[in-house]
Amino acid sequence: MNAMNTKPLISAGIVLGIGLGGFFDGILFHQLLQVHNMLTGWLPNTSVENVEINMFWDGLFHAATYLTTLLGLWQLWRAGGRPGVPWNGKMLVGAMFVGWGLFNLVEGIVDHHLLNIHHVVERYGQSVYDYLFLASGVVFVVGGSLAIRSARASL
Amino acid sequence: MCLVCNDPRAASVRDGIFREHFWSTAAAVLAPFGVLFAMLLALHLVWGRK
Fold this sequence. Notes:
The complex is a heterodimer of chains A (about 160) and B (about 50).
Chain A: H1 7-32, H2 48-80, H3 89-114, H4 128-153
Chain B: H1 13-20, H2 22-47
């Protein structure tokens, strides 16, 4: 075992992963693929008014991911200046995948299954894509955790 | 009439979302972040500050 303090780096990575995972969702699904927007489960994009309303709530979502990413960057900055905290890329990327996976799991359960404010592919409603989204969350959390464990062992 | 919640007080969908139900809609949109940060805070408290 070693005496290095890995918690600040892992914490920063998880928060960064949540923020960047949110950006990935917003940029890929909302903007590039346009398979859903924030409230399309309630207000499908069948009129300009609905598109405008969805765009506003997409903006609020992106504001939250932006603030989360800033918080993660601040944590990373602090971790980099602390003695005894390893500067390990594998551990950071692993923690970021844990954060991304947590985002997919929580956002999927809350938005797609509990509140039904949107679904991954809105035209199908609740579909296999919603479950694939949750599965990606599990894979990212498990894969990221394994990477962290492997990085810890090599310190 | 708000088509989201069938609230007759709202003049339109926009009125319903932005006036009558702004905060409840904002709470729904931000709910995942609230859950995630509550989880991280709980982990932080259990895991320790060091």
